[in-house]
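User: For my dataset I need records formatted as: sequence, then structure tokens, nothing else. Please produce one.
Assistant:
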Amino acid sequence: MASSRKWIVGVVVIGLGVTGYFATRGHTAALAPGRLYVSSEESGVVTAIDLGTGQVVAKVTAGKRPRGVQVSPDGKTVYVALSGSPNMGPGLGQREGATADKSADGIGVIDVATNKLLRTLPAGSDPEQFAVSSDSQRLYIANEDTAELTIVDTAKGEVVKTVTVGQEPEGVALSPDGKLAFVTSETNNRVDVVDTATSTMLGSIDVGARPRAIAVSRDGQRGVVTLEDAASVVLVDPAHRKALKTVKLPGDNVRPMGVVLSPDGKTAYVTTGRGKKLFALDAETCGELWSVEVGDRPWGVAVSPDGAKVYTANGSSNDVSVIDVETHQVSSRIPVPGRPWGLAIKP
């Protein structure tokens, strides 16, 4: 494969806002540090952290169980998925006597300028991860407990379409041209491909045990999928719906969860949950470049606009790790209580 291939980061590309800048080691465009937004599943809070100082600058009470979080392409809005379902997996809480508060389900809309929750958009049942269209007109939302992809018009605040997908959908990514949506199905071990123009299922990619997240290249020809139960990642051809290569990650309790691609498209960063590590993989081959222990139960992952730092949300450690890409070491850990889950960056 050509080493010059550029990559985007599935749903995270909106949060990173990488379009319009270029960075490689030794040659970095001058950019302001920006902010890191952290969703905390237990506290219901979205925390804003200044990337230059590492200090918390705002805390926004968003609602129940915030998980997936994204920043709009214009940098003016933070979207966060909220859920009133018990933190026990789809259906499990009901069997144990817990009840879901469906009135709490939605996508919280936070104004970046004021750090205020403006409104909550409808999002179907138990929204978890989602993608934002390049014009911010649409949200594509995975509904974990109903096996659906809900499409929301952000201006009207309305659900425009619901598409049936595989069971326990979680990760969502869009193709660079916005014509395809990719949705991981944890139970069916596949990535579903949805035509966004017609809101119809085109097919799926069989990938392996419990896919959690997907990142897609800038040219749309390659994607990296994390497989929690297989301790592996899969390189896929999204457009042609093919799995190309499966690579097992070494170590104990390695459960690949989140994935994000570096701004130059050369590296895939993967969190591993109970494995406690962040893996840096060659984005062309998924071969390991390096790894580092970051904290307890890392899930969410993001990369700084200049590509120099990687951030992980460590749920059980109640903090965010800051990893220096040059040294492959954790340079600091920022306390974020309430079980931090998702990360997104406003450059």
